[in-house]
Amino acid sequence: MRDVRVVLIGGTSNTGKSTVAGAVAERLGFEHRSTDGLARHPGRPWRTPEHEVPPHVAEHYGTLTTDELLASVLDHYERLWPRIEELITERARAGAPGLVLEGSALRPDRVARLTVPRTAAVWLTADDTVVRDRVRAAGRYEAATDAERHLMDRFLARTVRYQGRMLDAVEAQGLDRVDTGGRTVTEVADAVLAAAAAAARTRPGR
Fold first, then answer.
1. What is the per-residue burial (b if ≥16 Cβ within 10 Å, else e) of 114-125?
2. 76, 85, 136, 152: which is deepest, by most CB within 10 A?
3. What is the mean pLDDT of residues 167-193?
4. Would strands 31-34 and 6-10 be described as parallel, antiparallel, or unpaired?
């Protein structure tokens, strides 16, 4: 892994990207960042003790179809890509601090076309049932109102649809993915590091 300076961890929401990226960054002594920090699309539409759902977020998920929600987030990722590519390029140069960058905005088709050296990319996946259970647990679905459940269901429908599209692209491009279902954070981090190390050996120009 000494030749890899940027590790990219993609995947749909609630597959464990942030937690795993933090573990990988700690192991490597790299900085951990999320693409959400560059520009955020309407966030997760459920209340937490510290956060109420803003009206515009409720309207976004409450009024758009699944196709429209997917198109909206894909447009957001497309607009964000130049900033992501600039960050990757900057941090992959010799002497720059190492970086673990995670986020759903790391689209396989875009990453596959990168020619930046010293980078490795892995996508995290989870069974649709696992994703559903995580979303519902985060939003306290059982205690939520019907209106709150509707927003969570719309978010979940978009999340599952995006993962299907992402998986098709990962397989078409022959990229690396790690399933997170039933595995500890340590186990997933081990698998990510192994995949990144293998990519560095087999695709040294990347």
1. bebbbbbbbbbb
2. 152
3. 95
4. unpaired
